[in-house]
Every structure is written in structure tokens, then in C-alpha cells.
DNA sequence: ACTTTATGTGTAACCGGTTACTCATTCGAG
DNA sequence: CTCGAATGAGTAACCGGTTACACATAAAGT
């Protein structure tokens, strides 16, 4: 391994001078700089980040914690984060938490042990002690917390839109899937939907789910149609759940969207290719990841951050699991 | 930050003794050990990996390089790798290469700079100088190279199976999508398919593609039906390409599988939920990632590895984009 | 001509661990 | 009872960078 000493020797200067050249700090004579740069070239030297990190007590590493990269929603988030970080020369230590508190703790610990300068996390436990103790910036992604900056989509509005749409398109006995209780955006969606359902006086039922895992979603889908067989509209807690519901509906011989309308949440890839293609509330996942990274970078650089909570807009994506909207409401105007 | 010195002071011993306790190395009196452990507890001390890594010249970090985590095939690979690594206490520095040589080089450099102990890569440039120079183990994943150990699926056999199936199911004018020329598994699939097509004397055409990007696949799908409008069977280079072909076929009003059969490759999530659900050649992506990590760990631990190239089996997954197999072949027996 | 200030470079301490080496004490074998 | 081996623990060098500080020389003010 080529070290700064080798470069110093080769260029006939001290390590301090090489370091100055590397970091473009302090005075270095133009001729000296050239000598050093030549030496660096010739020896193909790259500074060891570990040594640097040790002295500075900070690395160029960011911890990224997601529940499960295998869930089609998360790759987009991850990619957004990576792209922005990469632009500023940060690298990611990546982990799947599987919605397990222990795994989260373990990862947070290794992030700290590796002098990570920040953590971006789609945690399931935002209030966890491990986060509170940290003295590096934390940004919650697709999550909300009162103590930490966060980037998330407007779940409340999403829920409202979903309910409005499903009602306008004719559903009268709606079942709403309530996502995990401890995840704010999931609750917001739920509340937004219920809000509109109540205001408009449309009958609705609720099915609770505890996680975002596909397996659980499948069970809940069965439960849904068993408990409320006359449901004619389902607002799912996310697209994976919507898929499970769609499958179950089809299995039971129900026509979608004629007999049951289904609206998902997220707009994960390929969801528009199902049959019928799923209508959903789109979250800008890539952008959310990107913004979270951006926020993180500002935090790391100690810039005063005006906006610590970034709420992203959502939109209804009309596809085949909802019926066409009757166009008789606002005839003129 | 709590350091080993704080622990030593608190326990009334030297740092060497604390280190011995931590690493369970050398002689430490039982009473002393308890004192130290108590101090560690009370101060909530965790050793700094960076310092450790600097002295040992190796970290607990593994570089993982994938073309694009957003491509539905890769999350599974990544997850397999992560799960196995996690079992042995290794962590991942993760990067997307976007099939760009420059990005790969940059990532390899940072892996080295951070004292990564190994690199697992789905590289597009296995012969690249940057890999050859490395003196840490490299495992290629879903790729093949003569100089490095690799884990990949049996593409040749997969191609053969695809061709056999599509022929048995009645296609007589097959178009084969040839994946990127520099990616061996893609070529193997292609060759396997062509091999069978030639042996059986079925007419076939070829469309070349340069990358695995969805966008390109869409263009090529258009090109395919423009150049060979009477195609009645398509063997795609992967599922994303198969989706593009399916879409284009449907757009042109062709019935799938009645007029055109389509076989994909990979078996990515949700592909079985399309309409029609895509028949495909399944690669055990999660297992491949897991095995690659396992191989890497053996390499790191310096174990003599008998099997440096691990080829995983593939299988045909029959779904709706291929027709039913005529069952008249072996009537009695 | 004489301070000041700016420029240029080297020495050595430091970051937080690990380990080679040293030294002291205890134990067991002959 | 003696001596080598086993046990237990501390000191300091080391890993590869960064930077405070010292020092020398050149340029700029007065």
C-alpha cells in the first residue's frame, strides 16, 4: 500500500507538505506542488480514508437504513439518496432493518463505530433511545418525528384524495386498510381517508395491519372480504397491500373495478402493468430520497436549515382498478 | 465520545488490558475482566472501528456494487448478500454503477480507501484494470470472469430451456433478444437459445441490445415487431425486456400468448401479476447473493475454496405468456 | 535600515485502537 | 528448594493521515 510517507519521500518533501497539497490548505510553493502531484501520479497514491477519518473523527460515510430493499417501494428511495450523496462524494453504508428494533440498534451502532457523519433512516422506531443519543444528524425518510428532521409525503392529503376519488367513482361501502400504528405517514393516510369518509357520510370499515410485509397483507386481504363481503371499495395502506387485495378479490370472482374499486399508495414500479393496472396515490419516492440526502448534506455542513420537515406532494394516478369518473358534476363553467 | 482510555481509567487498568478483554486474547485475570466489563457497561463504550481498522489495515466493510438497485432484479441479490454478511458481522458499502466504467472505478477506489476487505460486484467490466490490481478478494455476482471467483446462474441451460419450451408450445418464427455483448451470462442465455433453435431447425431472428435499461428495451421491442412482424415467439434477454415486448405486442393488438409467446428471464417480483402473467426462466437471485457472500467470507478468512465458480440452477416458470403444452407426445408408456 | 507580515516547509503530537515487548508474580516439576 | 513455564498486566510503538507550532526566508511598510 502506498502511503503519504512514500509520496513524501519520492517527492523529497515532508508528509505535512504532501498533506497540504492534498487538501489545498496553507502555503505550498507552486514548484513544490508540482513535484508532489507528480509523485502522487507516479505512485498512484490515494489517501487512506480510514486514517483521515480517525484524526478528524468523521468519515465520508452516511448510514442508510431501510426496512427491506426487497419491497419495491424502497429501491427508489435508496437510489435518490445515493445519487445525491454521490454528487457530494459521500458513500453509503446500507442496511435492512426488517422492522426489527434490534437490527436497527445494531446498524446505528456500526454507523457510529465507523464515524458515519449522518444517518438517513426509514425507521419504525423514531422515538428510540438509540436515535436520541446520537450526536450526528439524523434525517427520517418516509417517516415523521418531532425531534428530528424528516422528509415524507403528505399522507393526510393522500388519504383524502383516495377517499374522494373512490367516492366520486361510486363506492359506497368502503373498507380502509390501516397501516402500522407506529408509523405516522401510514396513520396520516388513514386519517385523511376516514376524515373524508365521515364528512361525506359514506359507510366504511377498517382493517388493521401491523407491518408492510406482503405476507401479512395477504392474510388481511382474506380477512377483509371475509368480514366485509359487501365491500365495494378498498383504500389500501400501500401498493403491496393493494396487490394482495386485488388478488384476493379476483380469487373470489369479484370484478375489479366493476364490483370493487381498489386504490393503492406509493405507485411502485410495474404496478401499472398489472391487470387491471392499479390506481394509486403516487409518492415521489426518488425525489424524497434525493431531498433527504440534500437535507442531510446541509445538516452535515452545519448550514442553518430553515425547513427541517419537508413534505412532498402526492397525486392520484388513475388506472384500471377504479372506475371512470361520471362527468356530470360541473356541467358548465 | 467514550474511548478505550476512559474505560481503562474507569476500571483502573491500562488500555492494553481493556483491549485484551475486548478481543478475548492473552491472559486477563478473571477479577480484572469483570472490572473492565463493568466499566464498559457503565460508560456504554463501543470500540471505534476506524481506529481498529487503521491498525489492522482491514475493516469489517464489504463493497457491494450493482448496476442499478432500481432494476427489480437487483434488490433480491442485494438482500441475499446483506443477510449473509450480517450473520458474520460484515457491513456493506453500497453503490450503483449505472453500467458506467467511471462510476465503477470511483467506487472501487473508495472501497479500497475505506479498507474494505472484499468486493462483490455485478460489474459490466470484469476485465477492468481496477479489479486486476486489487489485493482483496473480489466475487463477481451474476457475472463471469476467468480471473475471479463468481456466482451466476446457468444461462446456457436457461436459454436452452426457453427455446425448447417456446418450440414445444408451438412457436415457429422466434425472435431472440441478445443482451449486452460484454456480459457473459447474457450471451450464454442467447447461445443456449440459438443452439436449440438451430438444432431443431426452427426459424429465428436476432435483435441486439446493449444494456439492461428499460428504455432501451422499449425501443428494441418496437424495432422487433417492425423488422419481424410475423414473429410468433420472443425469447427476451430478461424480464424487463420481456415486459417491454409484451407491452409493444399488446399495443399492436397482438394476442399473447395466442399469436405471440413471450418468455422472460430472471423471474422478478410482480412479474407473475402482469396480464398475462409472464412465463420466465427463474434465477434464484436471493440465493445467488447469499452464496456470493458466503464465498466472499470464506475467501476473507483465507479458507481454501474448492469451488471458485458457483453456477446456480435455473428453471422454467410456466405462466400466461406461453401456451399450454400439447400433451400428446407420450401417450402410453 | 528595521520591523512587520506573508510565504514556505519541517517536526512532532494526535486520533483510538492493537500488540510486541518487558517485567513481576505464581505455579508446578524435579 | 530451585528454576523454567504459565499467568497477569503495563509501556510504548505503530497504523496513515492532519495540523499546531516552530523556524526560515522573502516581501512590504515606515
TrEMBL record, chains A, B:
Residues 2-56 form the HTH lacI-type domain. It holds the Pfam family Peripla_BP_3. Keywords: DNA-binding, Repressor, Transcription, Transcription regulation. Gene3D superfamilies: 3.40.50.2300, lambda repressor-like DNA-binding domains. It comes from the Bacteria. SUPFAM superfamilies: lambda repressor-like DNA-binding domains, Periplasmic binding protein-like I. PANTHER family: LACI-RELATED TRANSCRIPTIONAL REPRESSOR, RIBOSE OPERON REPRESSOR. This is Ribose operon repressor. It comes from Saccharibacillus kuerlensis.
